[in-house]
TrEMBL record:
Protein name, UniProt field: tRNA-dihydrouridine(20/20a) synthase
The UniProt record lists the keyword Transferase: no
Site for Interacts with tRNA, residues: 80, 166, 169, 283, 286
Keyword annotations of the record: Flavoprotein, FMN, NADP, Nucleotide-binding, Oxidoreductase, RNA-binding, tRNA processing, tRNA-binding
Function: Catalyzes the synthesis of 5,6-dihydrouridine (D), a modified base found in the D-loop of most tRNAs, via the reduction of the C5-C6 double bond in target uridines. Specifically modifies U20 and U20a in tRNAs.
Needed cofactors: FMN
The EC number(s) this enzyme carries: 1.3.1.91
PANTHER family: FMN-LINKED OXIDOREDUCTASES SUPERFAMILY PROTEIN (PTHR42907)
Pfam families the record matches: Dus
Family recorded in the similarity comment: Belongs to the Dus family. DusA subfamily. Belongs to the dus family.
InterPro entries referenced in this protein's UniProt entry, alphabetically: Aldolase_TIM, DUS-like_FMN-bd, DUS_fam, DusA, tRNA_hU_synthase_CS
Active site: 83
């Protein structure tokens, strides 16, 4: 998620779940290919499985960007056909490409020719006054024809005229039934649903209902432990539950290495604010991180102290 997630966030999330597939924020093909911004591909080997999401609309340029991504070690290259921001519209990519399924198919085909790893698509159900009932199956038929075997559908339209990117994540109504119907029409296509999913129970219900996968965005960011700590056991049937406390302990060497290489603590802790969301002491955890993690001298001790304060408070509350 642009401006929210980054490699530190993915490292944190990977500690909580070994099996969930993590995605980068959208990286544009012009930035990689024309701008040479290869640092945007930096990631930690621990992050796997991890997909690189690309934004673009030029088949040759996307193919080159995909090649760079695969060479950098990403397990999957995903094409963004869902982002509604103005900046992206002006570059003619993101959700506006729902109006050009033939071009998207060309992009997918070119990317597939360029790499051995899987090429996938994330899309909306339509944009503006398009009728999703007709547009979405047409769109899926095009990408399937180009060899795409896996798609994630954000189950709401993007209204490109009139809504901000933020409003476009909440205001257009969700249509999960349409996504289920697409699975009926495209039984060989691996279909994941996205949009408004806030718990593993809800995710499991989609899987039980016949969908192949579930993508969780904002809830995984704001309450990562609720979504990720039980995901391996409950969704993948493999591995043990993890805890937020263990995750903090496992982050400490990563924090040390980041600071030793000249980084700031708050570049990492900004992703850890919600780690104890909904639990006793969550507020003191958040407060101690926001007050203490930004100074140039801040190091792992900030996390150790915040955890300690949180646990002391939680114990005291239990005793009352
Ligand atoms: C701050 C922010 C940045 C986002 N950036 C991206 C992005 O780079 N690529 C993408 O496919 N979706 C992006 N999204 C959309 C989410 O991936 C997701 O489709 C949307 O939030 C709905 O799912 P959710 O209700 O689980 O969050 C972003 C969402 C937010 C809140």
């Amino acid at each position: 998620m642009m401006d929210w997630t980054d490699r530190h966030c993915r490292y944190l999330h990977r500690l909580m779940s070994k099996h969930t597939l993590l995605y980068t924020e959208m990286v544009t093909s012009p930035a990689l290919v024309r701008g040479g911004a290869l640092h945007l591909l930096d990631h930690n080997p621990q992050e796997h499985p991890v997909a690189l999401q690309l934004g673009g609309s030029d088949p040759a340029e996307l193919a080159e960007a995909a090649r760079l991504g695969a060479q950098a070690g990403y397990d999957e290259i995903n094409l963004n056909v869902g982002c509604p921001s103005d900046r992206v519209q002006s570059g003619s990519f993101g959700a506006v490409l729902m109006e050009q399924p033939a071009l998207v198919a060309k992009c997918v085909a070119a990317m597939r020719r360029a790499v051995d790893v899987e090429v996938t698509v994330k899309c909306r159900i339509g944009v503006d006054d398009q009728d999703p009932e007709t547009v979405l199956p047409e769109f899926l038929a095009h990408i399937v024809g180009a060899g795409c075997e896996r798609v994630t559908i954000h189950a709401r339209k993007a209204w490109l005229k009139g809504l901000s990117p933020k409003e476009n994540r909440d205001i257009p109504p969700l249509d999960y039934d349409l996504v289920h119907r697409m699975k009926g029409l495209f039984s060989n296509l691996h279909i994941s649903v996205n949009g408004g999913i806030t718990s593993l129970d809800q995710a499991q219900a989609f899987l039980d209902g016949g969908l192949d996968g579930v993508m969780i965005g904002r809830s995984a960011y704001h309450s990562p432990a609720d979504i990720l700590c039980q995901a391996d056991r409950r969704i993948y049937g493999q591995g043990e539950d993890t805890t937020a406390e263990d995750t903090v302990a496992q982050m400490l060497p990563y924090v040390d290495a980041h600071i030793a290489s000249g980084g700031r603590l708050n570049q990492i802790t900004r992703h850890m604010m919600g780690l104890f969301a909904g639990r006793p002491g969550a507020r003191i955890w958040r407060r101690m991180l926001s007050e203490n993690a930004s100074g140039p001298q801040a190091d792992r001790q900030v996390l150790v102290d915040a955890l300690d304060a949180m646990q002391t408070l939680a114990e005291a509350q239990k005793a009352v």
